[in-house]
Design brief:
Blueprint lengths: L9 E4 L4 E4 L9 H9 L2 H18 L6 H16 L16
Antiparallel strand pairs: 1-2
């Protein structure tokens, strides 16, 4: 029987202020995707995806609307890197039509 040695890449996670396993690749292209890849753990990203689903459903966001995308990016940055905009009811909600 042979043994395999696997290396786990870690990042100093901005969300948890701890060294945790990193993402395998940037979650999307661009500067923000690279920033997340370098500073956010896989666990924090998974939690963000759950939070994003809640926000999309709660506010009935249409992701084809650029305002909805802008809102979600603002919430993502606050959730992953700090700030209170990710808290529902904190005034970060998009304007209703």
């Amino acid at each position: 029987m042979s043994r395999e040695t696997k290396t786990i890449t870690v990042v100093n996670c901005a969300k948890f202020s701890a060294e945790l396993p990193a993402l395998n690749r940037p979650p999307f292209p661009g500067e923000m995707g690279q920033r997340i890849y370098e500073n956010v753990s896989a666990l924090a990203w998974e939690l963000w995806q759950e939070q994003a689903t809640l926000l999309i459903n709660h506010y009935g966001l249409n992701m084809a609307d650029p305002r909805a995308n802008d809102f979600l990016f603002e919430q993502m940055e606050a959730f992953l890197f700090g700030g209170d905009a990710a808290l529902p009811g904190s005034g970060g909600a998009p304007a209703k039509k």
